[in-house]
Amino acid sequence: MAKLKIKAQKDGFRRAGRAWSAAGEVVDSKDFTPQQIAALGAEPMLEVSEVEPAEDAKAKKK
Q1: Which of 35, 38, 27 lies closest to 1 in space, CA to CA?
Q2: How do the residues of the chain divide into helix, strand and coil, expressed in percent and rounded to 5?
Q3: What is the pLDDT of residues 5-61, one digit of tens each?
Q4: Rg (the chain; Cα; Å)
């Protein structure tokens, strides 16, 4: 399953039932419905990108 990196323009911005940070976080796409993923991607206050497995491992080490 794909992972997504989601970064908010402002700490605490809420969408899809969660608060997002300006630092960004990596999440499993399976934790969201297709409609939520579409809403996250369409939200101008969020930057959403797919993460490669190696990039995800680096993020967890920090």
Answers
A1: 27
A2: 35, 35, 30
A3: 999 999 999 999 999 999 999 999 999 999 999 999 999 999 999 998 765 555 565
A4: 11
Residue 60: partners with Cβ closer than 8 Å, 6 or more residues away: 26
The single-letter code of the amino acid at 1 is: M
* CA–CA dist 48, 24 (Å, integer): 9
Q: Which of 38, 30, 28, 37 is nearest to 59 (CA)?
A: 28
Q: Which residues contact 36 (CB under 8 A, 6 or more apart)?
A: 16, 17
